[in-house]
Design goal:
This protein has four helices and five strands. By secondary structure, the chain is of the alpha/beta class. The protein is globular.
């Protein structure tokens, strides 16, 4: 009995890191090709991608392409995001194969707040953009209050050390 308990405990401890990483998927190769729809705030989206590349010390890298057909990640802007199940102002639609690798991702960023009446500030948009890019590179929501991947906080505008640690864990485990 004691031996069985020790073996079970050892299995849990060895397996725990694999279960601790909550990822959507990973990209097989870098750089990831990105198309950003022309918009008066497309420069903010490009900056948000650059923020992830820089903060991750190029764990993720991006290259920009001229057509959506040539892109792995396609970014579009809309008056309202099309998912009616939530009052979202940004959504990411990932396509992940059975092997756990991304095939593509589509990010939609709303021009207005969830009330549909107030245009968002550049600071608000940057938070949303960074958050949605986080999904498009494999990160799921977290409960960490300082994480850009926390879906319910307005506190964090920047990518946190926790976000980068999780990103590096999922890409090292691929």
């Amino acid at each position: 009995m004691k031996k069985t308990l020790i073996l079970l405990l050892a299995f849990i401890l060895i397996s725990a890191p694999a279960f601790a990483i909550d990822k959507i998927g990973v990209w097989k190769e870098m750089p990831i090709s990105v198309y950003i729809e022309k918009n008066r705030r497309d420069y903010l989206m490009k900056k948000a991608f650059g923020d992830w590349e820089s903060a991750s010390n190029k764990t993720v890298e991006f290259e920009y392409v001229d057509t959506p057909e040539d892109a792995q990640i396609v970014v579009t802007f809309a008056d309202k995001v099309s998912d009616v199940s939530e009052n979202a102002v940004g959504l990411t639609y990932p396509a992940v194969g059975k092997d756990g690798y991304f095939r593509s991702a589509r990010i939609v960023i709303a021009k207005y707040s969830d009330t549909q009446t107030i245009k968002m500030t550049n600071h608000q948009l940057m938070k949303i953009m960074r958050h949605e890019i986080g999904h498009a590179i494999g990160l799921n929501h977290t409960t960490s209050p300082n994480s850009i991947m926390n879906a319910t906080t307005n506190r964090c505008l920047d990518i946190s050390k926790d976000d980068i640690r999780t990103l590096k864990e999922i890409y090292q485990s691929k």
